[in-house]
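are you around this afternoon, could really use another pair of eyes. what follows is a protein written twice so to speak, once as letters and once as structure tokens for the fold. i want to understand how the tokens follow from the sequence so walk me through it. anything you notice is useful, everything is just below.
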Amino acid sequence: MVTIMNNGGWAVGWFTLTFINSSIAQSKNRSGILWWFISLFLGPIATVILAVIPAEPPRTTT
């Protein structure tokens, strides 16, 4: 039983990271849901990508 609990910890951390990355993406004017899916597969690599890419300029409606 202990090994099952210990092995599931990384999944909780990975899933939490998807929400953190989604928030970072939204703060850079990027699609949060798109980056949530990207983070689901890339995890910490997506965090590094988000840290490196510049923010999108705000969209203006004319």
